[in-house]
Here is the input.
Amino acid sequence: MINAFKAGLLVAVAGSALVWASDVSAQANVTPPPGGFYMADGSRTADYDAALTSWREDAQFSVDYSKAYLGLEHAYALGLTGKGLTVGVNDAGVYMDHPLFGGAGKIKGLNTVVSDDYGNDGRINPRRRWEGHGTHVAGTIGGARIEGEAMFGNAFGANIYSATTNFAAGDFLWYRDVFINGDIVSTAQTNIVDLAATGEVRIINNSWGSGNSLPYNASEAVVRQAFGPRSNYGDFYKPVLDNDVLVVFSAGNGYGAHAGIDAAAPMFDPRLRSNWLSVANYTSDLTPSASTSFCGQTATWCVAGPGHEIVSSVPGYDFSLNAIAAIYRPADYRPLYTATSVAALQTASVNRFLGELNAYLTNKRAAAAAGRPFDEAAARRRVAEEAVAITLISGGRLGDPNGFTAQLAGLLTSTNNMALLTPDFSSDVLTQANALLMQRLETLITYTGPGYEAYTGTSMAAPNISGFAALLMEHFPEYDTALIGDILVSSSLDLDTPGVDLKSGWGAPQMQVALQGPTALRDVRDVDVRVGTVDVWSNDIGDARDRYSAEVLASYPDDIGGIVKKGGGELILTGANDYSGVTRVEGGLLTVNGSLINSASTVAELGMLGGVGRLAGLTVEKGGVLAPGGSGNLFGTLTVADDAVFKAGSYLWIRSNVNGAAHSRLAVEGKTTLEGGEVIVKADQGNWNLRTRMNILQSAGGVTGTFTGAKSDLAFLTPMLTYSANTVHLTLARNDVTIASVGTTPNQKALGGALDVMTASAMTNPPAGRNTALEDAILDGSADNVRAALNSLTGEVHATLAGVASGDSRFIRDAMLTRGRNGTTEATDGRGVAVWASGVFGSGRQDNGELAGFRSEATGYLAGVEKTLNGRAHIGVAVGESQSEIRANRLRSTGEVKTQHIGVYGAATLGGFDFRLGGAWMDSRTRTDRSASLNRFNEQLTGRYDGEAWQAYGEVSWRKSVMASTVLEPYLNYTRVEYDADVVERGGDAALSGDVSQTSDLLTAGLRSETHLAGGNGRPALSAIGHLAWTEDLSGDGPVFNAAFSDGPVFRVEGADLNSGALQAGLGFNIEASKSTNIEVGYSGVFNDDYKDHRLTGRVSFRF
Here is the structure.
């Protein structure tokens, strides 16, 4: 039971939904993560305000004021949870069976030199199982978010690395072992070093410290005098620096005193200043909690965190004051039971125990003076029993079994007291008191498992800030601790005295501000942004010293900021930045879209500086690149307020739109000195042509010197520079590289030749009204991207479709030839009429080094009727329709041919030979879609046109029976096919027109076989039909597209000849269901070096 006296300190402010400086009315544009902002229920939304509201209204989020105080909803809406971070908790040990620490890898412990009878491996002292301090701290930092639990940690996705610092409170043996036996039972500072040395933690939270009586506004000299003798750290904390760890300390609970000695460590080792935070405790109304110590001389690394009545995880237990009162009657301990404040209770407890110690000394002296025996053992037991009684009564009043153990044990182990009592006495009393206390607690404490309580203190404020830092590190994973620290402290809402002051330091950190980068820098910071990442800092960034109050500035007058951009990614500055340290770009891209008012910029080797903002001064060193403009405005102007210098080996990168009407440029309000360097023109960073004229550099104070020249990857243009007193101009001239020369295939070269003519005629003064978009795009390209685009410009898809249409002629031809073979055998009375139908489905694939490959699908149906003239001849007619579709990715094209077929055929047997003749006419409707693309030129082109084809064939064969069931039929076939179409495309300057045609003279030699498998003699019969042949195209030509652009010459584009040099193979099965009905199914394929075609066919015929 917790009585009202203690409960007043432990009331949670559940249900409060506070909104601080990050109120929704002040939202900036926030880019959502992929999939949208995160709602508290796990869903996603495009509405940022809705996401924020969902978190603020979440019961676990609002269990107390801490998360709203820090604005953590802004991190959670972006999906930040601390995932991937491990936070060290250097505390009293953690109750690891609490569900907030469940799951593989969520928590682990550090093994120290402390013996097993104390807390170790990150766990609680086994004699003090009620200890909730470390569990509370760990839960605040990284307790998991679990439905049904009371709360979750600020960085609920982070892991915990717990190190046990055995606190003195509640443990009589601690004082015996430390002060009398000299044992190591507490490794507080060593744990920091050991956790850092693991290389696994980025943050180490320390919610502990030693008290002091210094006023918070004590001068630097006074603080150094007080703390200095105990602060000779040397290289003790070097692992913290080597592993770039952020160490967070609670300032202390000194009721207005100065922050503790450990929080002030950077005063005595300045290297630690960027890796240290000190945290005071402020309430929900942004005022100091009564118990807090203040920042004092730690102000420049100190913030005000939420630490008043913070709800978090603890080991649950019941501790009954009523049961204690039954053992220790109130009448016997009235001052302890009637105290009305913590201070009064402590005074009563200490006075009661001092009285017992003095009684022991008095009685011992009196016995000695009187020569009486003195029962030393009984006396010691009496003192131990009194220590336990006071501990339990005071603990029962406080609701904390620790009671005032520390104060009582401190009386026994102080140097002066032990001189009177003897170390042996104190050791014995502490040992007995511990044994009796453990015995009593077995009946007075009931452990109830995982629980939650509200604690108050800077011990609670510090982990709130540690969790905040973990979220920030997840958001900016490449940033070092120094920069994270600057972002964290400078995000703060100012409290107390304006500026960074001795009470609350920087103030209350605000996540919404921190996510947008720093607002002040305490030193020149490296900013590492990895390749592929774009970080945007939208805050105005100043020197930290400009934020300091007068008393803080006196100690830290040189805290000026600067940035050194590193890594291959991009950092964008959009604010009005007045920090006065250096700005240096050593890697990746720094984009200044705001201003650098007081900081001169230097672009070093491998660095790039761009944007449309304003710089103070500029130096571009060897290997550095200045690139005015940015992703939001490629053709913008970058302004330099003072002077600009381009060193030898530096680069100025210029981008342009069509004709240079808009282009990126550098405007210098001072003078410009050119000591060499080059101007870069890149094909994929602008639109270039012979009409490009641009002023790329304007300098009000004059231009001195020249660039060594200009270079580009433009294949067909050469940039040229001219100078005047205040400007540098860029123009372009045609070089002697032909477009045809960059082509690698005959079709590309033919296209390139036509484009050479077109670009030459366009030149600098094209005829009025002429569309030169295509010519401009070609001249705008590099050799590589022009070569890559030529396939999409050739129109090869039309030649390919002509080949496909010609190839589809075999659909009706094969069906008529099949009927030519079968028709003479299906009726022998000279009066038979037959009807038949067939269907086909197939797919093909063409791959050719010089021609773009394609994939095809084909379907079709046919029907026919025929008449047997006599037993040895018949004639017939066939009609049908087929459809073929192709996809040619290298051509960025798709196409479709729908063909209607009509044919006549006949067959006769003369002597031992069979003769077959036939012809067909085909009408095709063609549809094409292709994308012509090069740099920023992109046109979607469509073709809709008709084509015609005809074919005629003749075949002779000889049938020979082998064995009883098989017939072999060698044959020779000649077929002529002619196809022709007039192509018309629409869609832009790259549209083509012209005629496409193919003539094929196909000679085929092959062998067919038919084998009777079963049935016959009045029953259904089954036969297998095989087919193997070789085809050559005697004309030797594939399809040809004679193409032209609207303002260009004709050029020849060839397609694949799909039938020449091809092996044909097939296998089918014929079922003679009755004398009048035949069913046949089969497979046929065409195979040559570049083309494979597979088709499935089904046929049925009926005789009357």
